[in-house]
Design goal:
The protein is mainly α.
Length: 307
Amino acid sequence: MSVKKEQLPRRMHTVHVYESRGEWLFQGIIVFIMVVMSVTFIYPYWHVFVTSISSPDVAQSSGFKLWPKVFSLDAYRQMFMTKTLWTGYKNTLIVVAMAWSVSISLNILGAYSLSRRTLPLRGLFTGIIITTMFLQGGMIPTYLLVRKTLNMGNTYWAVILPQCISVSHLVIMRNYFMNLPQELEEASIIDGANSFQVLIRVFLPLSGPMIATISLWIIVSNWNAYFNCLLYITDSSKYVLQIIMRRIIQTDSKEMTSAGEAADQLSTDTVTLRAASIMLATIPIISVYPLLQKHFVKGVLVGSLKG
């Protein structure tokens, strides 16, 4: 005799979560604080942008500027007509490209080596590298090394090499590699791959978020860097963009951006020129952030799990 099993209907239970007034108040305070912080961060940049596209009379007036009362692009026209600006852009792009290629390569090789448990004296090497975060030679020994010993004055290498390896980047990469499954390396070695092939063909394809995050940090730091150029470069034809902008802001802007009689006929002043120079220096690097923003959380968090 067969027994038929009746299927009992599944009852869906809806759980209602009620938040207390205290929680609503706490969330409201957090939202208010974040809005105030966002306005504090965004408005100064917006103020500079509005000043750069305003007429000189409006730009010189004090007070809040939410929108240009008299629209004018004369400051940007004069900036674009000067050769000094394009020379700074060219030098900065060269420095950023060279610095990224050298820095990302050295950091990857160093991090992969320190992440291997078979490396002799791995703990000693790691400790020595981390010690350099707290104990450094200082500016004067570095200057003497670069200018006198290595004789790299007035070269791009003088701007790149002193900061091509960052200990924080190296540690993040090392921790990221240590979090990757060791079985992948063992399987590759069994198949006949050496350590360099394991790094290139196995680890790097899995390290996209980490490499994107470190790359953005390297690009931003070298784009904004000016101090090494100020120390080691005396040839004005090799000045990076930040040095050009620094001179425009600190000196007579019209004199620095003079591009002939056509530029003198434009209705500009130092306020609008300085604002335009700040915008031209920051817009390119800000536009890179949205492209790599999705890699930040994964790259940083995964790279900080192990010590």
